[in-house]
Amino acid sequence: MAKFTTDYVFDTATQINGMTKNEIVCFHLFNPNGLVAKLPDFDDFCHGDVFFAGCEIMYGRHDNYYAKWLRDVCNKEKSYTKWQLMYHLSKLADDVDAAWATIANKKAAA
């Protein structure tokens, strides 16, 4: 298995092939191509003078349950299996899609 540099994982990588569990967590947390970066930011929940508060709590970059799980794994170095990681990433990817669809629907209805 190839050893990846921190710069590669954090900045340049576009996929997770060949990465360890910890590198995959860092990729999705810090890389611009990772799933957390694809979640909407605070400003994305604004439409004119309307703010979609419920959407931000569910799908926001800082409040999303699965993004928080990744941060906990990274910060606390808690034990997790590859299956748990892939499960949370799958759910996070679903949330990314649902977030942008919900925002589009809310903006169309406003």
Walk me through this protein's architecture.
It is built from six helices and two strands; from the N terminus they run H-H-H-E-E-H-H-H. The radius of gyration is 15 Å and the shape is elongated. The mean pLDDT is 88. It has a two-stranded antiparallel ribbon. It has helices spanning 6-12, 21-30, 35-38, 53-59, 65-76, 82-109; strands at residues 46-47, 50-51. The chain is mainly alpha-helical. It has one domain.
Whole-number tally of structural domains: 1
Categorize the overall geometry. elongated
Radius of gyration from CA coordinates: 15 Å
Total beta-strand segments: 2
**Low-pLDDT residue spans:** none
Order of secondary-structure elements: HHHEEHHH
Distance between the termini: 51 Å
Strand arrangement across the biggest beta sheet = 1-2
Query: What do the pLDDT scores average to?
Result: 88
Structural class: mainly alpha
Largest sheet: 2 strands, antiparallel
Give the helix tally: 6
Proportion of residues in extended strands:
under 5%
Helical percentage: 55-70%
What is the compact description of this entry?
Helices cover 62% and strands 4% of the residues. By secondary structure, the chain is mainly alpha-helical. The protein is elongated and about 50 Å long.
